[in-house]
Amino acid sequence: MAKFCKSEDCPTSEDLLAFQVGDMPLSEGAGVRQHLAVCEFCAAEVEFYESYPESGESDEQVEADSMPTPLYELAEALLTKKRDDDFFDRLMEKEDL
Length: 97
Fold this sequence. Notes:
The chain is mainly α. Helix content is 55%, strand content 0%. The chain is built from 5 helices and no strands.
């Protein structure tokens, strides 16, 4: 099974968000579209942005206890760029998903 993670070739999260909301020039968007066709991780990230658009308030904070633990752990891992290859597998094995 291929690793489900962002690689050095992936667009940044900021670029994927700009692509999803239409704030990216067409010339750059073509490259992102091609990447999304072959990268499940980035495609899932763009789908996430589509399902949960920004509220427009950049100061908005989400408290950890109001978010389901597995989702919080996944977000924390992505934000801190944990390189533990087994971390995501352990998250998926938890029964309370």
